[in-house]
Amino acid sequence: MTDPVDAVFDLDALLTDEERGWRDRAREFARTRLAPVVEADFDAGYFRGELVPELGAAGFLGMHLSGYGCAGAGPVAYGLACHELEYVDSGWRTLVSVQGSLAMTAIAKYGSEAQREAWLPRMATGEAIGCFALTEPAGGSDPAAMTTRARFDGGEWVLDGAKRWIGLASEASVAVVWARTDAAGEEALGDADGAAAGGRVRGFVVPTDAAGFAATPIAGKRSMRTSIQCDVALDGVRLPADAVLPGARGLSAPFTCLGEARYGITWGAMGAARACLDAAVARSRSREVFGRPIGAMQLTQAKLADMLVEYEKGMLLALHLGRAKERGALTPEQVSVGKLNAVREAIGIASQARTILGGDGVTDEFPVMRHLANLESVRTYEGTDEIHQLVLGRALTGSPAF
């Protein structure tokens, strides 16, 4: 049977053969390896880490990067993979984002050749998991207020501080940790401006087996239960002088990595929306009341039509951003439009789908409540709605309101 959504919205006509190939590969993996276990894993709060090497073997880890065993796929192909993974569950797209868009991108863009050689090939295969430790317990949306410190002592870096909501940290072999340096460290790095300022934000490649590094999974989550987020403590973690990412100077480096992740969310959140839309369409055809399918009712058709329109708009925006990214023309403000719109519309679509499913929509017979719960986390991380609104407000008015 022709898919009713695809029959109305012919996205395939806008994609290349290579992009469709990546999409189909991701769809096959997500629906054969992830979907059969996702409800049980969500209920149990279980991260199925044994599947990470399979993601690596399929080429999805760091797939937008080139060299070091990475696939070198284009931005739209990467977005489509995010879409298909999040169709099943946001936790799995989050893993690909944390591993590839955050940790691997930081090392690839800002690391030394030795750091790239040491970590990227292993991360591309899934042999090594990485995490990206930026957010702090009291910092949230204000990384400039970072309290984690890196002091230079006896030719070594010493890191002290705390991070929170760090994805995969307890499973990771390597953490990219962001900390504020001291003047001595900046002087050792030969950065006179950084030394004069008393230090600046820098990234550090931290093996998670280093003494003083501890990651504790956050308990009690009602969202993102197929993935892991942690509190991270850094208590006198000693690192060699070359542990610093040499190309990362200031907050622009982690913000660039966050932009990569936000781009993936623009596609991924629409995957969750599509799953909810598909469930609602199927239920509207199979459930009968008053002697006919509920899909024959005017109000149900109006809901489905509105959901389809918002889904199509979200996908066209994602594709537009992907083509801009191909040209090297994608701006942070455009990424904020994508992330803000995608998550907001996905939550709206999921909520509307729940009404069509009726009481059964709150059960695990359908994926909608799980997607709704996950999307509330996606809404918050990589920039809250309010942060993206302020980014866009600044672009429109020229006045920062942060």
From TrEMBL:
The catalytic activity of this protein is classed by the Enzyme Commission as: 1.3.8.6
Gene Ontology MF terms in the entry: fatty-acyl-CoA binding; flavin adenine dinucleotide binding; glutaryl-CoA dehydrogenase activity
Provide the Acyl-CoA dehydrogenase/oxidase N-terminal domain boundaries. 16-127
Fetch the InterPro entries from UniProt.
Acyl-CoA_DH_CS, Acyl-CoA_Oxase/DH_mid-dom, Acyl-CoA_Oxase/DH_mid-dom_sf, AcylCo_DH-like_C, AcylCo_DH/oxidase_C, AcylCoA_DH/ox_N, AcylCoA_DH/ox_N_sf, AcylCoA_DH/oxidase_NM_dom_sf
| Obligatory cofactor(s) | FAD
Question: Is Oxidoreductase there in the keyword field?
Answer: yes
One of its GO biological process terms is:
fatty-acyl-CoA biosynthetic process
Domain spans labelled Acyl-CoA dehydrogenase/oxidase C-terminal: 249-396
Keywords for the protein's UniProt record, in alphabetical order? FAD, Flavoprotein, Oxidoreductase, Transit peptide
For this protein, the record's Pfam families field holds: Acyl-CoA_dh_1 (PF00441), Acyl-CoA_dh_M (PF02770), Acyl-CoA_dh_N (PF02771)
* Protein name (Swiss-Prot/TrEMBL): glutaryl-CoA dehydrogenase (ETF)
Please report the stretch or stretches of sequence annotated as the Acyl-CoA oxidase/dehydrogenase middle domain: 131-237
* Lineage top rank: taxon: Bacteria
Name the family. Answer: Belongs to the acyl-CoA dehydrogenase family.
Q: What lineage does the source organism belong to?
A: Bacteria, Bacillati, Actinomycetota, Actinomycetes, Micrococcales
Q: Which residues cross the membrane?
A: none
From the UniProt record, list the reaction(s) this protein catalyses. glutaryl-CoA + oxidized [electron-transfer flavoprotein] + 2 H(+) = (2E)-butenoyl-CoA + reduced [electron-transfer flavoprotein] + CO2
Pathway given in the UniProt record: Amino-acid metabolism; tryptophan metabolism; Amino-acid metabolism; lysine degradation
Species name for this entry?
A: Agromyces rhizosphaerae
